[in-house]
């Protein structure tokens, strides 16, 4: 797959399309069983790097409602789209599973895109810690990849030992990038105020 064919915008080359063509023939994904993880989304065709796959659709909710849904009803599908902002998905995004070696990320809050070329039949997964930065967010991981972290948390993206910010560069939501930048500035001020030229001097 050398280059995306105009992101499959067939209208740009004069091909007439309708809802059946775009939703059935050109659909990027399909829902099917994913082993012990329940259902998952799978590539219904070859997908090109940076191609938009799906957007989160649903009502916006705050952290209190998200917590109530989880602790009272066991509903844990809310997708973060900002600091203490979530969308309760009513479309297939609620079936996207986590992986420590994901193939999709974000081009914007709630907009899933391919981080690399994806072959037909591959499961579409993203790293939950790329968007959920809640301090209390911790879940066990059973993705089974070579780099499986066993447990993921809302602080993983900030952990320099994991190098996730670099790994997912270009596919991290803006609100997460702003928080990374804010924390880096805060940490830098802390070290300078204690007489260190940089954070590495602290460990000498």
Structure description:
This protein has helices at 19-25, 63-73, 164-167, 174-193, and strands at residues 29-33, 39-43, 52-55, 60-61, 79-82, 85-87, 97-98, 104-108, 111-114, 123-126, 138-140, 151-153. The protein is of the alpha+beta class. The chain is globular, with a radius of gyration of 19 Å. It has a single domain (6-173), classed as Beta Complex (Beta-clip-like).
How many independent structural domains? 1
What is the alpha-carbon Rg in Å? 19 Å
Q: In the CATH classification, which architecture applies?
A: Beta Complex
User: Structural class, judged by helices and strands?
Assistant: alpha+beta
The strand order across the widest sheet is: 1-2-10-7
Helix content: 10-25%
How much of the residues is beta strand, in percent?
Answer: 15-25%
Low-confidence stretches: 1-7, 200-204
Give the CATH class. Answer: Mainly Beta
Largest sheet: 4 strands, mixed
Assign the CATH topology: Beta-clip-like
> What is the N-to-C order of secondary-structure elements (H for helix, E for strand)?
HEEEEHEEEEEEEEHH
- The tally of strands reads 12
| Broad shape | globular
N→C terminal distance: 49 Å
Overall average residue pLDDT: 85
What is the CATH H-level superfamily?
A: SET domain
How many helix segments? 4
Task: State the gist of this model.
The protein is globular, with a radius of gyration of 19 Å. 21% of the residues lie in helices and 22% in strands.
């Amino acid at each position: 797959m050398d280059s995306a064919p105009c992101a499959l915008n067939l209208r740009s080359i004069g091909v007439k399309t309708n809802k059946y063509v775009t939703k059935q023939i050109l659909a990027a994904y399909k829902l099917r069983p994913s082993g012990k993880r329940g259902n998952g989304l799978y590539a219904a065709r070859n997908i090109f790097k940076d191609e938009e796959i799906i957007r989160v659709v649903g009502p916006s909710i705050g952290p209190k409602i998200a917590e109530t849904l989880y602790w009272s009803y066991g509903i844990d599908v809310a997708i973060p789209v900002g600091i203490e902002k979530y969308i309760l998905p009513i479309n297939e995004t609620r079936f996207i599973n986590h992986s420590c070696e994901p193939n999709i990320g974000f081009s914007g809050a709630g907009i899933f895109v391919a981080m690399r070329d994806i072959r037909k039949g591959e499961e579409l997964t993203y790293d939950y810690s790329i968007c959920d930065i809640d301090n209390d967010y911790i879940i066990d991981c059973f993705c089974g990849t070579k780099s499986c972290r066993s447990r993921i948390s809302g602080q993983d993206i900030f952990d320099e030992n994991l190098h996730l910010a670099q790994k997912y560069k270009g596919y991290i939501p803006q609100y997460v990038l702003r928080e990374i930048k804010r924390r880096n500035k805060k940490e830098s001020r802390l070290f300078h105020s204690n007489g260190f030229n940089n954070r590495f001097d602290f460990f000498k």
